[in-house]
Here is the input.
Amino acid sequence: MRRTREPMTLSLPPFTRAVTWLVGINTGIYLLMELLSRVAPDVVRFIYRHFELIPSAAVQHGELWQIVTYSFLHLGFWHWFGNMLGLWMFGAAFESAWGTRRFVELYSVGVIGAAVTTVGVAYTRLLGGPDTATVGASGGVFAILIAFGMLFGENEIMMIPFPFLIKAKYFVGILIVVTLAFAMAGGGQVAYVAHLGGLFFGYLYVRRGPKAALANVGLTERYYGARNSYYRWRRRRAAKKFEVYMSKHDRQVNFDEHGNYIPPDDDTRKGNGGSKSGWVN
Here is the structure.
């Protein structure tokens, strides 16, 4: 990890290559959604339903693209403006120091890591639930913030619009404490869990590199493991409900511990040699 103590101001940073593209794409999508909300609200509802991050849809219905597409959707002007301001002011410094490729990797790790964190916490039901939607680029922005604090920690930045300076490491530390406090308090309508996920995976990226950060995300393995566990649980639950239903109608059916149907021992109906039949996952 490389640190710098060079003087720096973030009042008017340059628009570097990747920052320009990300701000432009996010702004274009925001303006398009604003326009469609006035002329075609049904289209807007369809887009949000399938492209915002809904843990139940991503895990249970295989809409895995949501772990990326949610970051390009914003609710309202200030939501969009705050993320784009942070992306520009802090992202330009990181891209200038480490290059475009590393910046894009950091931002992507933050977005995806925030999504995975949100999905994982949603299924614990500690904060929100699997049907709670998340949108916004905050995961990527917070990954950039923690990277900025680690690389330029001794540099002083001006707290626009407040006329005083603060070291970058203290500024990032305050953000982490505030975000953690709001997350523990429930967070209201703000996805503070996603913020913390972005911070964590951004930290891993800077400290240990992209491979280590992506290995901690473990997208494929964790996604399919969670999905298969959910389907097995749902099958066992359905089997139990069906047993109760049939018993109320004076009929008995049996299922094994995996929720597979066990046919009755009737030699005249064993056309398959007496093997068990069941649902295929």
